[in-house]
Amino acid sequence: MQQAVSAPEPATTTLGIRQDFPILARTFNGHPLIYLDSAATSQKPNAVIDALADHLRNHNANVHRGVYPLAAESDAAYEGARKRVASFTGAEQLSTIFTKNVTEAINLVAYAWGRANVHAGDAVLITQMEHHANLVPWQVLCRERSAQLRYLEVDEHGQLSLEQLDSELARGDVRLVAFTHVSNVLGTINPVAAMTARIRAAGAVSVVDGAQAVPHMPVNVAALGADFYGWTGHKALGPTGVGVLHGRTELLDAMEPFLTGGDMIASVEAQSATWNELPWKFEAGTPPIAEAVGLGAAVDYLGAIGMDQVRAHELALAAYMHTRLAEIPGLQIMGPEDPEHRGGLASFTIDGMHPHDIAELAGRAGVCIRAGHHCAQPLMRALDLRATARASVGVYTEPWEIDALIDALIAGRAVFGT
Ligand SMILES: Cc1ncc(COP(=O)(O)O)c(C=O)c1O
Known about the structure:
Aspartate Aminotransferase, domain 1; globular
Protein backbone atom coordinates (compact mmCIF):
# COMPACT_ATOMS: atom_id res chain seq x y z
CA MET A 1 0.00 0.00 0.00
CA GLN A 2 1.41 3.40 -0.95
CA GLN A 3 1.66 6.12 1.67
CA ALA A 4 -0.10 9.42 0.97
CA VAL A 5 2.32 12.25 0.43
CA SER A 6 0.05 15.11 1.37
CA ALA A 7 -3.13 15.59 3.37
CA PRO A 8 -6.13 14.63 1.22
CA GLU A 9 -8.95 17.00 0.44
CA PRO A 10 -11.69 16.35 2.98
CA ALA A 11 -14.44 14.37 1.26
CA THR A 12 -17.81 16.05 1.08
CA THR A 13 -20.02 13.23 -0.13
CA THR A 14 -23.22 12.71 1.84
CA LEU A 15 -26.70 11.50 1.07
CA GLY A 16 -27.98 13.59 3.98
CA ILE A 17 -30.02 10.74 5.44
CA ARG A 18 -28.28 10.03 8.74
CA GLN A 19 -31.31 11.32 10.64
CA ASP A 20 -33.49 8.64 9.04
CA PHE A 21 -31.61 6.03 11.10
CA PRO A 22 -32.63 6.45 14.76
CA ILE A 23 -29.87 4.24 16.16
CA LEU A 24 -27.27 6.67 14.83
CA ALA A 25 -28.43 9.20 17.44
CA ARG A 26 -26.95 6.99 20.18
CA THR A 27 -23.73 7.87 21.93
CA PHE A 28 -21.08 5.63 23.48
CA ASN A 29 -18.61 6.93 26.07
CA GLY A 30 -19.75 10.43 25.15
CA HIS A 31 -18.96 9.83 21.47
CA PRO A 32 -21.55 9.73 18.69
CA LEU A 33 -22.11 6.26 17.31
CA ILE A 34 -19.89 5.87 14.27
CA TYR A 35 -21.08 2.73 12.60
CA LEU A 36 -18.50 1.38 10.17
CA ASP A 37 -19.66 -2.23 10.22
CA SER A 38 -22.33 -2.18 7.53
CA ALA A 39 -20.78 -5.21 5.83
CA ALA A 40 -21.78 -7.24 8.91
CA THR A 41 -25.28 -5.82 9.04
CA SER A 42 -26.81 -2.50 8.05
CA GLN A 43 -28.66 -0.11 10.30
CA LYS A 44 -32.38 0.38 9.65
CA PRO A 45 -34.20 3.53 8.58
CA ASN A 46 -37.47 4.60 10.20
CA ALA A 47 -39.25 3.60 6.98
CA VAL A 48 -38.30 -0.04 7.60
CA ILE A 49 -38.89 0.00 11.35
CA ASP A 50 -42.31 1.62 10.79
CA ALA A 51 -43.30 -0.82 8.03
CA LEU A 52 -42.40 -3.77 10.24
CA ALA A 53 -44.25 -2.35 13.25
CA ASP A 54 -47.25 -1.34 11.14
CA HIS A 55 -47.55 -4.85 9.73
CA LEU A 56 -47.39 -6.44 13.17
CA ARG A 57 -49.65 -3.81 14.70
CA ASN A 58 -52.32 -3.57 12.00
CA HIS A 59 -52.13 -6.29 9.36
CA ASN A 60 -50.78 -9.42 11.04
CA ALA A 61 -52.32 -12.72 9.91
CA ASN A 62 -50.83 -15.84 8.39
CA VAL A 63 -50.50 -15.86 4.61
CA HIS A 64 -51.94 -18.07 1.86
CA ARG A 65 -54.57 -19.69 4.05
CA GLY A 66 -57.12 -17.19 5.38
CA VAL A 67 -60.21 -15.97 3.55
CA TYR A 68 -61.10 -13.12 5.88
CA PRO A 69 -60.15 -9.52 5.02
CA LEU A 70 -57.27 -9.28 7.51
CA ALA A 71 -55.64 -12.36 5.98
CA ALA A 72 -56.09 -10.86 2.53
CA GLU A 73 -54.25 -7.75 3.75
CA SER A 74 -51.37 -9.85 5.02
CA ASP A 75 -51.24 -11.82 1.74
CA ALA A 76 -51.19 -8.60 -0.24
CA ALA A 77 -48.43 -7.16 1.95
CA TYR A 78 -46.25 -10.30 1.67
CA GLU A 79 -46.74 -10.82 -2.07
CA GLY A 80 -46.46 -7.08 -2.61
CA ALA A 81 -43.06 -7.20 -0.91
CA ARG A 82 -42.01 -9.98 -3.29
CA LYS A 83 -43.06 -7.83 -6.23
CA ARG A 84 -41.03 -4.84 -5.00
CA VAL A 85 -37.98 -6.95 -4.20
CA ALA A 86 -38.11 -8.67 -7.61
CA SER A 87 -38.45 -5.41 -9.45
CA PHE A 88 -35.59 -3.86 -7.40
CA THR A 89 -33.19 -6.53 -8.67
CA GLY A 90 -34.62 -6.94 -12.19
CA ALA A 91 -35.95 -10.42 -11.45
CA GLU A 92 -39.28 -12.17 -11.95
CA GLN A 93 -41.67 -12.56 -9.06
CA LEU A 94 -42.23 -16.27 -9.63
CA SER A 95 -38.54 -17.01 -9.44
CA THR A 96 -37.93 -14.77 -6.40
CA ILE A 97 -37.96 -16.92 -3.29
CA PHE A 98 -37.89 -15.64 0.26
CA THR A 99 -35.46 -17.52 2.49
CA LYS A 100 -34.10 -16.88 5.98
CA ASN A 101 -30.87 -15.31 4.69
CA VAL A 102 -28.37 -15.80 1.87
CA THR A 103 -26.87 -18.77 3.71
CA GLU A 104 -30.20 -20.56 3.39
CA ALA A 105 -30.54 -19.44 -0.24
CA ILE A 106 -27.19 -21.07 -1.11
CA ASN A 107 -28.05 -24.20 0.87
CA LEU A 108 -31.31 -24.39 -1.05
CA VAL A 109 -29.35 -24.60 -4.32
CA ALA A 110 -26.75 -26.98 -2.87
CA TYR A 111 -29.43 -29.37 -1.66
CA ALA A 112 -32.19 -29.04 -4.25
CA TRP A 113 -30.06 -28.59 -7.38
CA GLY A 114 -26.76 -30.04 -6.19
CA ARG A 115 -28.02 -33.37 -4.88
CA ALA A 116 -29.78 -34.08 -8.18
CA ASN A 117 -27.09 -32.87 -10.55
CA VAL A 118 -23.64 -33.32 -9.02
CA HIS A 119 -22.31 -36.87 -9.19
CA ALA A 120 -19.13 -38.80 -8.49
CA GLY A 121 -16.31 -37.51 -10.64
CA ASP A 122 -17.93 -34.09 -11.19
CA ALA A 123 -16.38 -30.88 -9.91
CA VAL A 124 -17.76 -27.82 -8.15
CA LEU A 125 -15.68 -24.69 -8.61
CA ILE A 126 -15.65 -21.90 -6.04
CA THR A 127 -13.12 -19.18 -5.28
CA GLN A 128 -10.62 -18.52 -2.52
CA MET A 129 -12.50 -15.36 -1.56
CA GLU A 130 -15.78 -17.00 -0.52
CA HIS A 131 -17.57 -16.42 2.75
CA HIS A 132 -18.18 -19.72 4.55
CA ALA A 133 -21.83 -19.41 3.46
CA ASN A 134 -20.74 -20.00 -0.13
CA LEU A 135 -18.10 -22.57 0.72
CA VAL A 136 -19.21 -25.04 3.39
CA PRO A 137 -22.46 -26.06 1.57
CA TRP A 138 -20.33 -27.00 -1.48
CA GLN A 139 -17.81 -28.87 0.69
CA VAL A 140 -20.62 -30.92 2.18
CA LEU A 141 -22.19 -31.57 -1.24
CA CYS A 142 -18.88 -32.64 -2.77
CA ARG A 143 -18.05 -34.91 0.15
CA GLU A 144 -21.46 -36.55 -0.07
CA ARG A 145 -21.24 -37.01 -3.84
CA SER A 146 -17.55 -37.90 -4.13
CA ALA A 147 -17.19 -34.83 -6.30
CA GLN A 148 -14.15 -32.55 -6.36
CA LEU A 149 -14.22 -29.06 -4.85
CA ARG A 150 -11.77 -26.79 -6.68
CA TYR A 151 -10.86 -23.16 -6.09
CA LEU A 152 -10.15 -20.20 -8.33
CA GLU A 153 -7.20 -18.35 -6.85
CA VAL A 154 -7.08 -14.75 -5.72
CA ASP A 155 -4.10 -12.88 -7.20
CA GLU A 156 -1.88 -10.33 -5.45
CA HIS A 157 -4.35 -7.56 -6.36
CA GLY A 158 -7.22 -9.43 -4.71
CA GLN A 159 -8.75 -10.40 -8.06
CA LEU A 160 -9.79 -13.55 -9.86
CA SER A 161 -8.46 -14.57 -13.27
CA LEU A 162 -10.85 -15.19 -16.16
CA GLU A 163 -8.07 -17.24 -17.77
CA GLN A 164 -8.02 -19.57 -14.79
CA LEU A 165 -11.82 -19.81 -14.98
CA ASP A 166 -11.54 -20.71 -18.67
CA SER A 167 -8.95 -23.38 -18.05
CA GLU A 168 -10.95 -24.88 -15.17
CA LEU A 169 -14.08 -24.97 -17.32
CA ALA A 170 -12.10 -26.51 -20.20
CA ARG A 171 -11.45 -29.57 -18.03
CA GLY A 172 -15.04 -30.52 -18.78
CA ASP A 173 -16.03 -31.80 -15.34
CA VAL A 174 -17.32 -28.59 -13.72
CA ARG A 175 -21.06 -28.78 -13.03
CA LEU A 176 -21.43 -25.64 -10.95
CA VAL A 177 -19.46 -22.48 -10.21
CA ALA A 178 -20.26 -20.49 -7.08
CA PHE A 179 -18.68 -17.10 -6.43
CA THR A 180 -19.28 -13.88 -4.63
CA HIS A 181 -20.29 -10.68 -6.42
CA VAL A 182 -18.36 -8.54 -3.92
CA SER A 183 -15.85 -9.96 -1.43
CA ASN A 184 -16.64 -9.21 2.21
CA VAL A 185 -12.91 -9.22 3.03
CA LEU A 186 -11.10 -7.84 -0.02
CA GLY A 187 -13.91 -5.63 -1.27
CA THR A 188 -13.24 -6.96 -4.79
CA ILE A 189 -16.10 -6.53 -7.27
CA ASN A 190 -16.02 -9.58 -9.50
CA PRO A 191 -16.89 -9.39 -13.23
CA VAL A 192 -20.12 -11.33 -12.79
CA ALA A 193 -21.54 -11.05 -16.32
CA ALA A 194 -18.23 -12.11 -17.92
CA MET A 195 -18.02 -15.06 -15.55
CA THR A 196 -21.63 -16.25 -15.91
CA ALA A 197 -21.37 -16.09 -19.73
CA ARG A 198 -18.32 -18.38 -19.67
CA ILE A 199 -19.94 -20.71 -17.15
CA ARG A 200 -23.13 -20.97 -19.20
CA ALA A 201 -21.15 -21.59 -22.41
CA ALA A 202 -19.35 -24.46 -20.67
CA GLY A 203 -22.69 -26.04 -19.72
CA ALA A 204 -22.26 -25.39 -15.99
CA VAL A 205 -24.57 -23.56 -13.58
CA SER A 206 -23.62 -20.31 -11.82
CA VAL A 207 -24.46 -19.37 -8.24
CA VAL A 208 -23.68 -15.80 -7.20
CA ASP A 209 -23.55 -14.59 -3.61
CA GLY A 210 -24.83 -11.02 -3.79
CA ALA A 211 -24.80 -10.32 -0.04
CA GLN A 212 -22.30 -7.46 -0.33
CA ALA A 213 -23.52 -6.18 -3.71
CA VAL A 214 -27.29 -5.65 -3.66
CA PRO A 215 -27.21 -3.09 -0.81
CA HIS A 216 -24.48 -1.01 -2.46
CA MET A 217 -24.79 -0.86 -6.26
CA PRO A 218 -27.31 -1.31 -9.06
CA VAL A 219 -27.87 -5.05 -9.48
CA ASN A 220 -29.96 -6.46 -12.30
CA VAL A 221 -29.95 -10.23 -12.02
CA ALA A 222 -31.31 -10.72 -15.54
CA ALA A 223 -28.48 -8.64 -17.03
CA LEU A 224 -25.88 -10.42 -14.89
CA GLY A 225 -26.98 -13.76 -16.34
CA ALA A 226 -26.61 -15.76 -13.13
CA ASP A 227 -28.56 -19.01 -12.88
CA PHE A 228 -28.96 -18.44 -9.14
CA TYR A 229 -28.37 -15.16 -7.30
CA GLY A 230 -28.84 -14.89 -3.52
CA TRP A 231 -28.71 -12.00 -1.08
CA THR A 232 -29.62 -11.21 2.47
CA GLY A 233 -32.12 -8.64 3.76
CA HIS A 234 -30.38 -7.46 6.92
CA LYS A 235 -27.38 -6.07 5.03
CA ALA A 236 -29.74 -4.17 2.69
CA LEU A 237 -31.41 -2.00 5.38
CA GLY A 238 -34.03 -4.72 5.94
CA PRO A 239 -34.76 -6.79 9.02
CA THR A 240 -32.92 -9.97 9.99
CA GLY A 241 -34.65 -13.25 9.19
CA VAL A 242 -35.29 -12.68 5.49
CA GLY A 243 -33.12 -13.40 2.47
CA VAL A 244 -33.74 -13.80 -1.23
CA LEU A 245 -32.93 -16.36 -3.89
CA HIS A 246 -33.49 -15.48 -7.52
CA GLY A 247 -33.27 -18.51 -9.80
CA ARG A 248 -33.73 -19.30 -13.46
CA THR A 249 -37.34 -20.49 -13.78
CA GLU A 250 -36.52 -23.62 -15.84
CA LEU A 251 -34.03 -24.74 -13.21
CA LEU A 252 -36.32 -24.02 -10.27
CA ASP A 253 -39.21 -25.78 -12.01
CA ALA A 254 -37.14 -28.89 -12.54
CA MET A 255 -35.87 -29.00 -8.96
CA GLU A 256 -37.31 -30.98 -6.08
CA PRO A 257 -38.14 -28.90 -2.98
CA PHE A 258 -35.46 -28.12 -0.40
CA LEU A 259 -37.62 -28.07 2.74
CA THR A 260 -41.01 -29.77 2.91
CA GLY A 261 -44.17 -29.30 4.98
CA GLY A 262 -47.03 -26.84 4.91
CA ASP A 263 -47.62 -24.27 2.19
CA MET A 264 -45.21 -25.81 -0.33
CA ILE A 265 -47.62 -28.58 -1.40
CA ALA A 266 -50.40 -28.80 -3.98
CA SER A 267 -51.98 -31.91 -2.42
CA VAL A 268 -51.03 -34.51 0.14
CA GLU A 269 -52.05 -38.17 0.19
CA ALA A 270 -51.22 -40.65 2.93
CA GLN A 271 -48.03 -41.76 1.19
CA SER A 272 -47.18 -38.98 -1.24
CA ALA A 273 -47.52 -35.31 -2.04
CA THR A 274 -47.34 -33.00 -5.02
CA TRP A 275 -45.70 -29.62 -5.00
CA ASN A 276 -47.03 -26.09 -5.13
CA GLU A 277 -46.06 -23.76 -7.98
CA LEU A 278 -43.13 -21.37 -7.93
CA PRO A 279 -42.14 -19.59 -5.82
CA TRP A 280 -44.10 -21.24 -3.01
CA LYS A 281 -42.66 -24.71 -3.74
CA PHE A 282 -39.52 -23.45 -2.02
CA GLU A 283 -41.20 -21.66 0.90
CA ALA A 284 -42.13 -24.41 3.37
CA GLY A 285 -43.98 -23.38 6.52
CA THR A 286 -44.97 -19.92 7.63
CA PRO A 287 -42.59 -17.55 5.85
CA PRO A 288 -40.93 -14.44 7.34
CA ILE A 289 -44.00 -12.29 6.63
CA ALA A 290 -43.34 -9.10 8.58
CA GLU A 291 -39.63 -9.35 7.72
CA ALA A 292 -40.41 -9.55 4.00
CA VAL A 293 -42.68 -6.52 4.36
CA GLY A 294 -39.78 -4.72 6.08
CA LEU A 295 -37.48 -5.71 3.22
CA GLY A 296 -40.02 -4.35 0.75
CA ALA A 297 -39.81 -1.02 2.58
CA ALA A 298 -36.01 -1.22 2.53
CA VAL A 299 -35.81 -1.66 -1.24
CA ASP A 300 -38.32 1.16 -1.69
CA TYR A 301 -36.07 3.35 0.46
CA LEU A 302 -32.94 2.41 -1.48
CA GLY A 303 -34.80 2.77 -4.78
CA ALA A 304 -35.93 6.28 -3.82
CA ILE A 305 -32.29 7.30 -3.28
CA GLY A 306 -31.33 5.56 -6.53
CA MET A 307 -28.73 2.81 -6.60
CA ASP A 308 -26.47 4.81 -8.94
CA GLN A 309 -26.40 7.53 -6.28
CA VAL A 310 -25.74 4.96 -3.57
CA ARG A 311 -22.79 3.54 -5.50
CA ALA A 312 -21.39 6.99 -6.31
CA HIS A 313 -21.60 7.99 -2.63
CA GLU A 314 -19.99 4.81 -1.37
CA LEU A 315 -17.30 4.93 -4.05
CA ALA A 316 -16.34 8.45 -2.96
CA LEU A 317 -16.33 7.35 0.69
CA ALA A 318 -14.29 4.23 -0.07
CA ALA A 319 -11.72 6.26 -2.02
CA TYR A 320 -11.48 8.74 0.84
CA MET A 321 -11.16 5.95 3.39
CA HIS A 322 -8.43 4.32 1.34
CA THR A 323 -6.45 7.56 1.10
CA ARG A 324 -6.81 8.36 4.77
CA LEU A 325 -5.97 4.85 5.96
CA ALA A 326 -2.80 4.98 3.86
CA GLU A 327 -1.62 7.90 6.05
CA ILE A 328 -1.16 5.55 8.98
CA PRO A 329 2.34 4.08 9.18
CA GLY A 330 2.44 0.29 9.17
CA LEU A 331 -1.11 -0.08 7.86
CA GLN A 332 -1.76 -2.49 4.97
CA ILE A 333 -5.05 -2.64 3.10
CA MET A 334 -6.14 -5.90 1.46
CA GLY A 335 -7.66 -6.12 -1.99
CA PRO A 336 -7.68 -4.09 -5.21
CA GLU A 337 -6.06 -0.66 -5.09
CA ASP A 338 -8.47 0.97 -7.54
CA PRO A 339 -11.68 1.98 -5.67
CA GLU A 340 -13.62 1.43 -8.93
CA HIS A 341 -12.91 -2.28 -8.51
CA ARG A 342 -14.03 -2.48 -4.93
CA GLY A 343 -17.04 -2.01 -2.69
CA GLY A 344 -17.18 0.31 0.29
CA LEU A 345 -15.07 -1.67 2.71
CA ALA A 346 -11.44 -1.90 3.70
CA SER A 347 -9.82 -4.79 5.54
CA PHE A 348 -6.50 -3.86 7.03
CA THR A 349 -3.76 -4.75 9.46
CA ILE A 350 -1.45 -2.46 11.43
CA ASP A 351 2.06 -3.65 12.22
CA GLY A 352 2.43 -4.47 15.90
CA MET A 353 -1.30 -4.43 16.70
CA HIS A 354 -3.70 -7.36 16.77
CA PRO A 355 -6.87 -6.62 14.78
CA HIS A 356 -8.97 -7.29 17.87
CA ASP A 357 -7.03 -4.64 19.76
CA ILE A 358 -7.53 -2.22 16.87
CA ALA A 359 -11.30 -2.82 16.94
CA GLU A 360 -11.48 -2.69 20.72
CA LEU A 361 -9.66 0.63 20.95
CA ALA A 362 -11.76 2.08 18.11
CA GLY A 363 -14.89 0.94 19.95
CA ARG A 364 -13.90 3.01 22.97
CA ALA A 365 -14.11 6.08 20.71
CA GLY A 366 -17.58 5.07 19.52
CA VAL A 367 -16.22 3.70 16.23
CA CYS A 368 -17.63 0.29 15.33
CA ILE A 369 -15.39 -1.79 13.10
CA ARG A 370 -15.10 -5.53 12.78
CA ALA A 371 -12.10 -7.73 13.52
CA GLY A 372 -11.56 -11.41 12.85
CA HIS A 373 -11.51 -13.87 9.98
CA HIS A 374 -14.80 -12.52 8.58
CA CYS A 375 -16.10 -16.06 7.99
CA ALA A 376 -13.49 -16.55 5.29
CA GLN A 377 -10.84 -18.75 6.87
CA PRO A 378 -9.48 -20.28 3.62
CA LEU A 379 -8.96 -16.74 2.27
CA MET A 380 -7.19 -15.71 5.46
CA ARG A 381 -4.87 -18.69 5.07
CA ALA A 382 -4.19 -17.79 1.44
CA LEU A 383 -3.30 -14.25 2.59
CA ASP A 384 -1.17 -15.73 5.38
CA LEU A 385 -3.19 -13.85 7.98
CA ARG A 386 -5.21 -14.92 10.97
CA ALA A 387 -7.39 -11.86 11.13
CA THR A 388 -7.88 -8.33 9.84
CA ALA A 389 -9.74 -5.26 11.03
CA ARG A 390 -12.48 -4.17 8.61
CA ALA A 391 -14.24 -0.84 8.21
CA SER A 392 -17.28 -0.75 5.94
CA VAL A 393 -19.61 2.05 4.90
CA GLY A 394 -23.31 2.30 4.14
CA VAL A 395 -25.74 4.79 2.66
CA TYR A 396 -25.82 6.73 5.94
CA THR A 397 -22.04 7.04 6.34
CA GLU A 398 -20.51 10.52 6.19
CA PRO A 399 -16.86 11.54 5.65
CA TRP A 400 -16.38 12.87 9.20
CA GLU A 401 -16.91 9.31 10.40
CA ILE A 402 -13.91 8.18 8.36
CA ASP A 403 -11.94 11.00 9.98
CA ALA A 404 -13.06 9.73 13.39
CA LEU A 405 -11.86 6.24 12.46
CA ILE A 406 -8.45 7.60 11.49
CA ASP A 407 -8.21 9.58 14.75
CA ALA A 408 -9.13 6.46 16.72
CA LEU A 409 -6.52 4.38 14.88
CA ILE A 410 -3.83 7.00 15.48
CA ALA A 411 -4.75 7.11 19.18
CA GLY A 412 -4.75 3.30 19.26
CA ARG A 413 -1.27 3.15 17.78
CA ALA A 414 -0.09 5.54 20.46
CA VAL A 415 -1.45 3.19 23.17
CA PHE A 416 0.60 0.39 21.63
CA GLY A 417 3.63 2.62 21.14
CA THR A 418 3.87 1.51 17.50
C1 LIG B 1 -20.24 -12.23 1.10
C2 LIG B 1 -21.15 -12.77 2.16
N1 LIG B 1 -21.83 -13.90 1.91
C3 LIG B 1 -22.66 -14.44 2.80
C4 LIG B 1 -22.85 -13.86 4.02
C5 LIG B 1 -23.80 -14.52 4.99
O1 LIG B 1 -24.93 -13.74 5.21
P1 LIG B 1 -26.10 -14.29 6.14
O2 LIG B 1 -25.45 -14.60 7.47
O3 LIG B 1 -27.07 -13.18 6.22
O4 LIG B 1 -26.63 -15.52 5.48
C6 LIG B 1 -22.16 -12.70 4.35
C7 LIG B 1 -22.31 -12.09 5.69
O5 LIG B 1 -21.38 -11.58 6.26
C8 LIG B 1 -21.29 -12.15 3.39
O6 LIG B 1 -20.60 -11.03 3.64
